[in-house]
Amino acid sequence: MTSTAIDFESIKNKQRAGWETGDYPRVGNTLQIIAELLVEAADVRAGQRVLDVASGQGNAALAAARRFAEATGVDYATNLLAQGRDRAAAEYLPVTFTEGDAEQLPFPDASFDLVLSTVGVMFAPDQQRAADELVRVTAPGGKIALASWTPAGMVGHLFKTVGTWAPPPAGVRPPTLWGTPERLTELFGDRVDWVSLTKREYVFRYHSPAHFSQWFREFYGPITKLSGTLSGADTERFADDLADVARQFNRADDGTVAAPSEYLEAIGVRR
Questions:
Q1: How much is the pTM?
Q2: In the predicted model, is pLDDT for residue 182 greater than 70?
């Protein structure tokens, strides 16, 4: 199937509805450390123009602003942008949050010295177009820095589990492919020199596997939306399937969850 046969706009509209369901920042805020590590790895400097793509509630934008960069966050989910603005105001950080699509960024060419995304742009259905946009808005010699879940990690398995209940749209590549060097090479070609590709782990910490399942079903928008379509025994089976993912990767022995999930931290220089 060619990309022209895929209705990306319809897919994005459904995605947006998912992210605007539940209360994603209740999950996303727990991932702040990924953004802090990413901006450090990218060596962000004070005064640099930094863009956080698919920013959600602004983890990477806030991390950059704490280092006195001129930070902007862009996302198509307006409820997440509103929470980003609230977070920035609470921390007295001058971050600009703009509504926009990762596949059609509302900025001129070469607008930013550093373009970031923490487990965000990877969800754009038209992966090539999103990659092209990252390159377009990055100034030559600037950096692109990405943190993306890998196929083999816990979140990769979580997505596969969810996919057994709600198969992904036909023809759309799995988002976790962004967490592989091979896919980054396919998407960016010789336009970006990847100077650092590092596998890291983020540890999900919850009271129990059941708590992990409940938290994601209640707050992680796409899963919340799916869960709302189920009833009776299906609801219980879905809940247990999610808990099983946490059990599979859990390394805690006290009843709580401390489950590492692999992600790829990629730092590149735009040629």
A1: 0.95
A2: yes
Name the pLDDT band for 4 (thresholds 50, 70, 90): low
**What is the per-residue DSSP string for the chain?**
--GGGS-HHHHHHHHHHHHTSS-THHHHGGGHHHHHHHHHHTT--TT-EEEEET-TTTHHHHHHHHTT-EEEEEES-HHHHHHHHHHHHHTT---EEEE-BTTB-SS-TT-EEEEEEESSGGG-SSHHHHHHHHHHHEEEEEEEEEEEE-TTSHHHHHHHHHHHHSPPPTTPPPGGGGGSHHHHHHHHGGGEEEEEEEEEEEEEEES-HHHHHHHHHHHSHHHHHHHTT--HHHHHHHHHHHHHHHHHH---SSSSEEEEEEEEEEEEEE-
pLDDT band, very low/low/confident/very high, at 3 (cuts 50, 70, 90): very low
pLDDT at residue 5 in the model: 73
Residue 44 identity (one-letter amino acid): V
3-151+168-204+261-270: what fold?
Answer: Rossmann fold (3.40.50)
Any bridge partners for residue 53, and if so which? 74
Cα–Cα distance between 187 and 220 in angstroms, integer?
28
Contact indicator for 100, 108 with CB cutoff of 8 Å = no
Angle at alpha carbon of residue 145, lines to 142 and 151, rounded to 5°: 150
As a whole number of angstroms, the distance between CA 24 and CA 18 comes to 10
Q: State residue 227 phi and psi, 5-degree precision.
A: -60, -35
Instruction: Give the separation between CA 157 and CA 174, rounded to whole angstroms.
Output: 12
pLDDT digits (tens, 9 = 90+) for 120-160: 999 999 999 999 999 999 999 999 999 999 999 999 999 99
